[in-house]
Each structure stands twice: as C-alpha cells, then as structure tokens.
Amino acid sequence: MSTNPSSSGTPMRFLTKNLSLPVIVTWLIYVFLLVPSLVVIPISFGTSNELVFPPQDWGLDLYRRALDPAEGWLAAAGRSMVLGILATTIALLMGVPAAYGLSRSRFPGQKALTFMLMSPIFAPTIVVALALYLYFATLGMTGTMAALAMSHAVVITPFILVTTLSGLKHLDRNIENAAMVMGATRLQIFFHVVLPALKGSVLTGGLFAFLLSFDEVIVSWFIARSDQPTLPVKMYSSIQWEISPVLSAISTFLVAITVVGSVVAAFISSAETDGI
C-alpha cells in the first residue's frame, strides 16, 4: 500500500507549528478560569436540595424556584437590570464627551484629569464604595436608586473612557478638519461626525459597562437598601446564611448573560475593525 509522503505526519506538523508554549499556557489559563464557572451549569439542572455534582437526577426544579416571585430573585434581577441601564446611560453621557475632550484638546493638568477619571480602576473597590457611601450619606441619599446609579456610574465610566479613546485613535482627523472647513462647529462635528464613526466603540464600551454594573457587589452592598437588594447582593447574602442550590440556576443565568454580552461585544468590535 502506498502512502503520500506529502500528507504523512501533517497533523503532527500542524500541532508543532501552531501550538507554541505561549499558546498552550494561554489556553491552560483560559480553561483554569472558565471551568469553575461552567461547573454550576450541570448543578443547576439537578433536583437535590443541596449542591451536588454531578446531579443524581435531572430537572428544572431549581429554575422554577428561581422564577418564583415569592423567592425574590426576579425582583432583584429586575432591580439590577434597571440599575445597569441607568448607570450605563450616565457613564456614557460622562465618558464619551470626556474621552473626546481629552483626545482632541491640550490643556494644563490634562494628565492629572485623566488619572482622576481613571482612578476608580486603580483604587480598591471597597475604598471607592466607602467614599461613595459617606458622600451620599451626607446628602441623605443612601438607599435610593439615584445614589446607586451614580455610584455605579463612577465605577464603570473608566471603561467607557478607555474604549472611546481607543476608537478615537483610529478615527481619521482629516474628516473632522474637513467638516470644520465646511463651517461646522465643534459641537456639530461631535454629534454628526464623531459619534456615528464611534458607534462600535461606544456600543462595546456600553455593553461591558452594563455587565460590570449588573455584576457589581461591593458598591451596591454599601449603597442599596437591605430590603431592596440587587441580584449580586442577594446572592452574596444568601451564601452567608445558607448555600441554596437555587444559586446554581442564578449563576447559570449570569454566566449566560456574560457570554452573550461578550460575544456581541466581540462581534461589534470585529465589525468596526473590518470597516476601518
């Protein structure tokens, strides 16, 4: 029987060529980070009143309990959804114009202002949460949705700033100069030229900001009312007193939201890159 020398050992050569040590290490780290999150998915389809892996019996009992209004999970999820939308809207209104101003202007103290806007990323979250709590307590606003939304906006605005600045770096300034030559004001250029061109970056940043707000625990723990918790706060509180298997169903829901959001953000970013 004859063999084709050119095809002999092709899979091995392919693996040797493409699976370098950095690639292998990267995939191992990715699996290490991802697997713990995926373990809750099969647990969520069990019927036991305890966390059992793998489940002995399969069913949707835990999802029925999670969707039961009496359990309070739906109300907490709705609260987190509204909060995420409000916080993301505020962050977009602050972050996008700030990024445009920092990118297109030069003024004294610009680096200090940039660092101040980015500081919520560098500072420990619990320090930021305590500072926000003291601030809103002075104003008598703790426990209100307005205080929660503004607090979350402080935390997620830097991510809007980063994605918008990245998009502005790839934006051809000649387009803005041409609009200015045609008599457009800086405000008109921003709304009619820059924003349409940054649509992908703004949507990507807004999506990630929403996911971060939806998942935020520490800031919500300090600011929210104890009888009106967000979904992550309710989950954390539940873990303190008992480890209910319903948490696996809620966690699966959060994993699904994160995966879908990440895929959509990657698609938007890829489409914008291809369009450049």
Write a structural description.
- This protein is mainly alpha-helical.
- It has a single domain, classed as MetI-like (MetI-like fold), CATH 1.10.3720.
- 76% of the residues lie in helices and 0% in strands.
- The chain is built from 13 helices and no strands.
- Helix 2 crosses helix 13 and helix 5 crosses helix 7.
- It is globular, with a radius of gyration of 24 Å.
- The model has no long low-confidence stretch (mean pLDDT 81).
Strand and helix layout:
Layout lengths: L9 H9 L2 H24 L16 H6 L6 H32 L5 H13 L2 H15 L5 H25 L3 H9 L4 H12 L1 H17 L2 H6 L7 H11 L4 H30 L1
Helix pairs in contact: 2-13, 4-7, 4-10, 5-7, 7-10, 8-9, 10-13
Describe what is shown at a glance.
This is ABC transmembrane type-1 domain-containing protein. By secondary structure, the protein is mainly alpha-helical.
By CATH, the architecture is named Orthogonal Bundle
CATH class: Mainly Alpha
CATH superfamily: MetI-like
Shape: globular
The largest β sheet comes out as: none
How many helices? The count is 13
Low-confidence stretches: none
Give the averaged pLDDT, no decimals: 81
Number of DSSP strand runs: 0
Keywords: Cell inner membrane, Cell membrane, Membrane, Transmembrane, Transmembrane helix, Transport
Transmembrane segments: 21-45, 81-100, 112-136, 142-165, 245-268
Pfam family, one: BPD_transp_1
Subcellular location: Cell inner membrane; Cell membrane
